[in-house]
What we know:
The protein is α/β, with parallel strands linked by helices. The protein contains six helices and five strands, in the order ααβααβαββαβ.
Amino acid sequence: MLQNIIHTLKYNGKFKVGLYLGGLLSQEFSDTITEWKIDYIIPVPLHTLKKSERGYNQSYYISKGLSKKTGIPVVKNLLSRNRYTSTQTTLNKQDRKLNIEGAFRVKSKRNLKSKNILILDDVVTTGATTLECARQIKKLGADKIFVISVALAE
């Protein structure tokens, strides 16, 4: 059922589903998120070609839904995806890591010194994408980096 909901969000233009899923994340993990003392939510960016195909970034809308419930600001232009990557869904763990390596860059020079960051992705499989995002965010001086997603793929 969750897979169908995520596919509706990603491929059927139902971006409002993302707001709803973000609200559900807030309900399920509110204590944990409070404990982490998050300063900013960073959605995993899409490449401009993929974003123009889809019309929006589903992780951004999930982030907005989470932000609305928690009051934690979303920073959507911190990172950019500077290289188009093939879908991770058909790759094994090692190929995913190679596919995503160097795909993100810091777009903003925002100082994140002593800040706790929450990276949000719609689905985490091996963690290669969020790890690469975290590497870039660490360059800006972030103290702690956490990851949250709507689903973990098997």
